[in-house]
Fold these 2 entries.
Entry 1:
Amino acid sequence: MNRMDADLLHALGDLDEALAILDGDFLVALNAPMEALLPGEPGGLAADWAEPLHGLASALAAPLGQRCRCGVSGEYVAQRVALDARHVLLRLQDERARLHHLQRQLDDREGLLFTSRSLTVSEMGSVLAHELNQPIGATANLLRGLKLRLARRHPDDVDELAALDKAVAQVSYASQIIGRVREYTQSRQPKVESLDLVALVHQSLALLDWDLQREAVRLELDLPRDGVPVQGDAVMLQQVLINLLRNALDALRLDRPDDPLIDISLQVAGGRAELRVGDNGPGITPQTEARLFLPFSSTKPNGMGLGLSICRSLMEMHQGRLWFTRREAGGCCFHFALPVLAAATNQPVLENTA
Ligand code: ADP
């Protein structure tokens, strides 16, 4: 084996995909996954090596770039790619592993969508209950006051008095329903589990990889090398992060800059971890800013305007904070902060309030 072949073999060693390098009719190098699948001796004839895997020998004769099914039930896909004038790289993909991986990704996505839908419904119930409680209470008081006045001034207007009684009963019924919704939503407390914020960022980005690619967004990450341990409900915190990322993607789609960018940084200071999600989109006007975290305020054609208000309440459930700043280079930045766990004891670090 010459020097170049040895270097190639070394480089191939770290890859997960099954790969081999061929030089004409000869096998030059195999990486470990290929060796596990189809053991072979570098220097031997490629056709002999390929023989045990049904269809691989003929795949070696197919034109470069062509994807050929092999294996007894076509479970592998072989493809040859030219490396240089002499060397050819053979890629052998196990379709079952790829499909299994794809299925797992789809299941994860579906799981997240389901959880985030049910969280949203529940949070929406809570927001609605909160918003409706006040006008309904006020209406009930007004109706009761009206009935008292009517009873004093016109005690014989029995039909009107009975109608007011019915109106009060209807409003009380609406208020009971709201009370039940509030009870239900308030009983849902966040889970308390130790989790790593850095891993959470990577998981959230993986769930949005299609959207990030489709919008051709450049990602800039500034994350600590070691994990950042915090305590909380992974699903809820991921929902916050995904909401912020989706808002950034929406902003970049609606008003596309030349070089769409999302920058994420995570820093730990004073016992708190602060995560920033910035984008170089159109930013936020002072009018929008004034209502940013209020429910039902949206500037999007189909927006519900609930995302940020829900995210803020999720952060508050975690003794955290969520806020907004303007990026110096244009666009905006959302920040969330959480107490970190002291790694040694796994206890939340107490804030220095002195
Ligand atoms: P929705 O996404 O349904 O509009 P949100 O509460 O998540 O609800 O967002 C409220 C509003 O905040 C959005 O309609 C938009 O005007 C503004 N906003 C949020 N994030 C961004 C961002 N990254 N860039 C520009 N505007 C944003």
Note: The pocket of adenosine-5'-diphosphate is lined by residues 243, 247-248, 251, 279, 281-282, 284, 288, 292, 298-300, 303-309, 332 (CB under 6 Å).
Entry 2:
Amino acid sequence: MGKSIVQKILEKHIVEGKWEPGKEISIKIDQTLTQDATGTMAYLQFEAMGASKVKTELSVSYVDHNTVQIGFENADDHKYLQTVAAKYGIIYSRAGNGICHQVHLERFGKPGKTLLGSDSHTPTGGGIGMIAIGAGGLDVAVAMAGGPFYLTCPKVIKIKLNGKLNPWCSAKDVVLKMLKIFTTKGNVGCIFEYGGDGVKTLSVPERATITNMGAECGVTTSVFPSDETTFAFLKAQDRENDWIEIKADSEANYDEIIEINLDEIIPLTAYPHSPGNIKAVGELKELKVDQVCLGSCTNSSYKDLMTVAKILKNQKAHPNVSFVIAPGSKQVLENITRDDGLTDLISSGARIAESACGFCIGNSQSPKTDAVSLRTSNRNFFGRSGTKSALAYLVSPETAAAAVITGKMTDPRELETMGINYPNIEMPDKFYIDDSLFIFPDDANKVEIYRGPNIGDPPSSVPMLDIISGEVTIKVGDQITTDHIIPAGSKMKYRSNVPKYSEFLFEVVDPNFYKRAKKIKESGKSNIFVAGLSYGQGSSREHAALCPMFMSTKAVIAKSFERIHTANLINFGIIPLTFKKDKDYEQIDQGDNIEISNIIKNIESGDNLKVKNKTKNIEFEVEYNLSDRQREIILAGGTLAYIKNKSN
Ligand code: MIC
Ligand code: SF4
């Protein structure tokens, strides 16, 4: 029987287990990436493991999230990361070089390799034919120290792309269509593999837009074949030697096959507050727009920015629209400058921001109260823009450009009636390349690690308790994202200071959460969270587990969990429990006193646990889906403790 691309790449990397969808396997990781917001903790953990150098083929530490530098904290973290990189043999990408995923695609991604990144949008690398997976920082630290990465052997869903996109319709609309089909729930343990004759009509950055937002569907990753288009992209990056062909066998077996006709794709938008809320742009036609943001790791490539530049040539931004651009990388910015795109953008009225995450993570360019903000990014979660009352819509660069001109949501195809033709931007045969913002490690240099006052040791965990006795500190509904659990934006500067960052847990949902949690912790009890479906969507930030661990949380009970967050909870010794009967969710409330007993014996034998709701005087059963290894980690109190126990 033939093999899919996913099976071919994963089988080459399997360390433990075998190709058996649904079962745990571990794989060798060839490359890692970190970014500054997750990186400091990942490297502190890496240091704690005692390795002398990274053991991967290539590891890169990017600085792209916290580049605003209000106060000393961000700059302290950057310096720490730079010195750690130099000491352990890691390439350091300085602030200003661009967003990790865009830069990695340009300079390091290689077809057929595995990449593990401490950022949920690491699957961007799937656009170049790699298996690129997002994970918590601790998992990335383990991979850097030479350990394998554990995952569920995936189900593979083939997405057969037919035909070709029409003008004004783009890769972003394709992935928004994917979100309409698959939604943001229920895709855990799957990988999307793209194929069909439509693939060859999409450039590598367009493919990367599609794999990037597969993260919003909750899949492990998404991957495209590596073909002549991939070769042309690598050649334009002076990296043709990194190319190998990767394609599925013609009789490959898939768990499911979905077809998408590219010529039927129309401009789409995700309306507030989920990337899964999809409507046609035309349906929201009269919506007045206050802000348009172009950029983020989803849509900030050369082609994206040049397309907008040429649409806006000789046009001016509507007076009610604040128009911001964050180019994906220094390379993109330099190339659009050389090809005259930047001039068109500036003269249209764009505010050019740094090549970084910027507006996407809400640490700058927060829109005005009640604003309608059109963004080419991938997440429009509640509060993420930094303005709670703002309404963020995710759109393609073409739809963003149309709104810049008209001041309202506009189907970009209507621009033709205004005499604006679709600019068919070709990918350059050769990019202008300048790698001077990378610092490559040099063994001859002796380095002292710099630790400013913002760098604190990671908190240690305690082994699993036999009785968890505590209070339901918070009960939340479905699709709670890690942005709800612990906000990024202006609070992200505390990522290296867990006690301080913990003060902002669940801040956007309930400003009194921290006070309650602190009281429960100080009384010697456990904080217990209760949630609905798909708990922990979105970001890979391990602080959504690390800060709860610091606040003595030992269990979260939900209807279901998302993949990366589940792994993070386990890494920090918090057991993810699911209701055996969904109706039990209805019978538990915030403030209820809870007791879970006989935990150790039951986890050792893999049996379900019983939760006693002392306030309501009822008992119900909860389940957990943990491999033998994960049960040991939970009992040890987390991955670091587990590794230590093993090495003793
Ligand atoms: C995000 O887009 O939410 C982030 C910020 O890039 C996160 C990582 C983080 O919280 O540091 C992600 O996607 O994993
Ligand atoms: Fe940065 Fe936004 Fe991409 Fe996250 S989604 S990596 S914040 S650009």
Note: DSSP finds 21 helices and 27 strands in the chain.
